[in-house]
Amino acid sequence: MSETILKVTDLQKSYGQLDVLAGIDFELAKGEVVCVIGPSGSGKSTLLRCMNMLELPDGGRIELHGNEVFGEGKPKNLDVLRREVGMVFQQFNLFPHMSAKGNVKIAQEKVRNRKKKACDERSIELLTEVGLEEKIDEYPDRMSGGQQQRVAIARALAMDPEVMLFDEVTSALDPELVKGVLDVMRNLADKGMTMVCVTHEMGFAREVGDRVIFMDGGVIVEEGKPDDVLGNPQQERTQRFLGLVLEH
Length: 248
Fold this sequence. Notes:
Distance between the termini: 37 Å
Number of strands: 11
Strand order of the largest sheet: 7-8-9-3-10-11
Shape: globular
Largest sheet: 6 strands, mixed
Number of helices: 9
């Protein structure tokens, strides 16, 4: 059994009267790829944002390598969490006045305090890794959505995180651009990156995921191996969701 990197216990988050997360228990092992699926409003994105402390949970506990990073209603060791857990969003949020290399480089300089030469070398290496060696000096407005999303992935990887969170990173892309981004994520998984992916791409979840979690109403309804959850779901709610999704 691989070591547990991230552990979430009884995680809760509400907005007014709406319970978005109603007591989530979740563990992530080193090198594991977990795909989180479910209808809109089920709490998937909120779970990722709470795991990275972009949203403050209302209750529960989060541990990174056994060290508490959230508990008793407040964050702890936030710098460590943000350094070790990278996140890529639906929207690319690139700096429009910076080239691809500039976007990947800036956090390395500001947060990791790397020397300029090392930042340049690492940025070029990562942009090449995501298939953008010809776009290193290009600005975002001269790139497709898929290319911009790959820059965003390279930017998150530049911090050398131990865990990567992907929040529906293909949902804003035209269908023909999706494959390039998913290929980058497949390559990361093949290299042993620990990943949690909120996704609507069921083929990707089945092929790349070690585990699939189905969420609805702020709780985990069902989880297990991809072939079990996607091919033979046990819960009626999972069956209904997949019946709708897999028809299209």
